[in-house]
Amino acid sequence: MKILITGGAGYIGSVLTPALLAAGHEVTVLDSFMFGQNSLADCCHYETFQVVRGDCRNEKLMMSLLEDAEAIIPLAALVGAPLCSRDQIGTKTINQDAVETLCRLARPEQKILMPVTNSGYGIGEAGKFCTEESPLRPISLYGTTKVAAEKAVLERGNSITFRLATVFGMSPRMRVDLLVNDFVYRAVYDRAVVIFEGHFKRNYIHIRDVAKVFLHGLDNFETMKGKAYNVGLEDANLSKLELCAEIQKYLPNFVYLEAPIGEDPDKRDYIVSNQRILATGFTPDWSLGRGIRELIKGYTILRNSVYSNV
After folding, report:
1. Model confidence over 244-292: pLDDT tens digits?
2. Is residue 226's pLDDT more than 80?
3. Residue 302 placed within a domain
4. Do 39 and 14 touch, CB atoms closer than 8 A?
5. What is the pLDDT of residue 51?
6. For residue 115, with 0-12 CB atoms within 10 Å meaning exposed, 13-18 middle and 19 or more buried, which class applies?
């Protein structure tokens, strides 16, 4: 299949793009390369790979790239509450407006598979699982723009959205700021972390299972289209304290404690049911523990020491 990915050189795209190429698809990536990354360098040997440096908000460029595409995966986004609050105009125009424009430009027969976020659930009810039918109550600009983009994609039709849990794992375009990735990094190098509001719960999913769910969606598009799907690990609806206890199994010297005062600016707190995606035949390959072991190896390679002597 001929696939267009916007933001294909980002954290998820840098794992998804080579997975699609290895599966035999033709892939065109549009990316601004705003982080100066070279994460798709190893894809360039594929004759079936094309890359375009540009902006997904450029309507003329998007029209030309959509000409040959059979499926579109819009990954381009400013991701995470801190980055979104720093560039609120960019967040709205990239995360929401560009997706609404894409829905307008795409032909009805072109398939759209879009990742959104289960952070749209905001603050869930205690002890009650969020399903795809649960009300969406985003509490950040990031969540709000992603919920609006998902609405446009699903109303447009011939589309699937994946409400991703908090993603973790190694990527050629690494993000150390994601919760599991961050806590493991601190466990490896600081050997300690102070937690605010450690009872807040989230769901988690490995980045390679995110790539796998897109391949699953392409293979089963006709039976899955028209719906949103939560994508996370059923056994990983964990509080921050429970996550630290899991990391400590692999790094016994890791110490964590909950601050008696102070707040986490990220107030998300919910547990998620992933039964709808599991019912389609999708099964994740990566447990939380396997991902922690991978990250420990990865951080043996990566060390954020650019402004220090050690």
Report:
1. 999 999 999 999 999 888 777 677 788 999 999 999 999 999 999 999 9
2. yes
3. no
4. yes
5. 98
6. buried
* Domain that includes residue 221, residue range: 2-169+205-233
Q: Is residue 245 part of a domain?
A: no
**Residue 310 — pLDDT band, cuts 50, 70, 90?**
low
CATH code assigned at 35: 3.40.50.720
Per the structure, the count of domains in the chain is 1
- The answer to whether 202 and 238 have CB atoms below 8 angstroms apart is yes
Positive or negative torsion for Cα 193, 118, 274, 224: negative
Sign of the Cα torsion 169, 33, 39, 114 reads: positive
Per residue in 179-215, pLDDT tens? 999 999 999 999 999 998 899 999 999 999 999 999 9
Residue 46 contacts residue 21 (beta carbons within 8 Å)? yes
